[in-house]
Design a protein that fits this description.
The structure holds 2 protein chains of 2 kinds.
Chain A (H helix, E strand, L loop, with lengths): L1 H8 L10 H4 L1 E8 L5 E8 L6 H12 L18 E4 L2 E4 L5 H4 L4 E5 L6 E3 L2 E2 L2 H9 L22 H7 L9 H5 L1 H5 L6 H11 L8 H7 L13 H5 L6 H18 L3
Chain B lengths: L4 H13 L3 H37 L4 H10 L2 H29 L4 H26 L1
The chains are: A alpha+beta, B mainly alpha.
């Protein structure tokens, strides 16, 4: 199955499973088990344009079918395939092995700061619970009988949303954040980025209650501006900028006495 | 006692809706105070260091320094501001360190830090007052 899929994507190459000599072998260490697991080594045939997700899929389909991992779209839209690759959180479907495998060695682990279910699968519940805690849900102010909202594309608030809206919820920023590691109740970059998106949405009605939700010790004030989230975000968003926006908003509301 | 998935989700949504103003206001004021005092300290530390370097290069004795400080009431006022800013800034910074590195938080930690803040303030102002006298 893998051979035919690989053949379809790379029609000029021989089937993937038997063509190890053409481009060598990749030494892959993959985390197995839960929190008390260990790395196990696998040899995977090397191919051009091979992604880290291709490597994991090869192991699961041809070496050990019990390997647990998560993916869906394979094209960088769904945000479900994030893993720790050679020490850094990345979206594996859009990460080429060429770009990350130093000396043809790959180490693939589950995302940091989240409970490991098994192998490369983490429990994303805390991550999305924090979206809820940051009031990351749109609070509509209009009904279906109202006119469509008209939001000028060049307005300041709409342009602020342009910088934040493409988040796919992959958890790379959350796994890369030092503060999440030190302070497990910190809401984290993704939830705060979501809150900032909605704060700027003129159709949203959550108002000051969302600002309060992110203004606690575990909210925007806990950010140390290390910018790991911004550096690692595969969608090139700037959660650090969103958090800075929330800090400004909270500071103004505090001084005005409206918080 | 196992909750159904819908009960778990309902509890989470309810929890997310419970947003109290007081913790947010307190956290926001702590944040503002720490930033504001940081700005004051940045200025004070520069003036303090420049003064020390000047005094050392001029070869001033301790008596000469004290005499100059006493000659102008702006100096005690400057150091009183310095002490007040440090007494606010340092405990707030330690509060974050205690939380993130030692896992210490809550009322008891805040009381210890408040005592520390008062100690800094009292000790610092006593020193300034002694100098001005």
């Amino acid at each position: 199955m893998s051979a035919s899929r690989s053949g379809a994507r790379e029609p000029h190459r021989a089937p993937a499973t038997v063509n190890a000599d053409a481009s060598g072998t990749l030494r892959v260490r993959i985390w197995r088990g839960a929190a008390a697991g260990r790395f196990e080594s696998y040899d995977v045939p090397r191919h051009s344009s091979q992604t880290v997700l291709d490597v994991v899929t090869h192991v699961q389909r041809h070496v050990d079918p019990s390997l647990a991992y998560r993916y869906a779209c394979r094209v960088g839209m769904c945000g479900s395939c994030a893993m720790t690759v050679n020490g850094k959180a990345r979206w594996t479907c859009r990460t080429h092995v060429d770009a990350v495998a130093a000396n043809d060695v790959l180490e693939i682990a589950p995302l940091s700061h989240l409970p490991i279910v098994r192998d490369l699968v983490v429990d994303m519940t805390p991550f999305f619970d924090k979206w809820a805690a940051a009031k990351g849900r749109f609070s509509p102010t209009a009904t279906r009988t109202d006119e469509f909202a008209r939001v000028p594309p060049n307005s300041r608030k709409r342009r602020a949303i342009d910088e934040t809206i493409e988040c796919i919820g992959c958890g790379v920023c959350y796994a890369s954040c030092d503060v999440v590691g030190w302070k497990p109740d910190y809401l984290g970059p993704a939830a705060l980025n979501r809150a900032w998106t909605l704060v700027n949405d003129v159709r949203d009605g959550a108002g000051i209650s969302r600002v309060r939700a992110v203004a606690t010790d575990a909210g925007c004030h806990a950010c140390h501006t290390h910018e790991s989230c911004t550096e690692r975000c595969p969608k090139h968003l700037t959660p650090t900028g969103s958090i800075a926006g929330l800090k400004r908003l909270v500071a103004l509301a505090t001084l005005k006495g409206t918080l | 006692m196992t909750e159904s998935p819908s009960e778990v989700i309902a509890a989470r949504v309810q929890g997310a809706g419970d947003v109290r103003a007081r913790p947010a206001r307190a956290a926001a004021w702590r944040f503002l105070l720490q930033r504001a005092t940081a700005a004051v300290l940045a200025l004070c530390v520069v003036v303090h260091l420049a003064t020390i370097i000047y005094a050392v290069r001029q070869g001033l004795s301790a008596e000469a320094i004290v005499a100059r400080v006493q000659s102008n009431s702006a100096w005690p006022a400057f150091y009183a501001v310095f002490v007040a800013a440090a007494a606010i800034h340092a405990p707030l910074g330690l509060r974050a360190i205690a939380d993130e590195w030692l896992g210490l938080r809550g009322r008891r930690t805040d009381v210890v830090l408040a005592v520390f803040a008062l100690g800094l303030l009292a000790g610092g102002l006593y020193a300034v007052e002694s100098l001005a006298r």
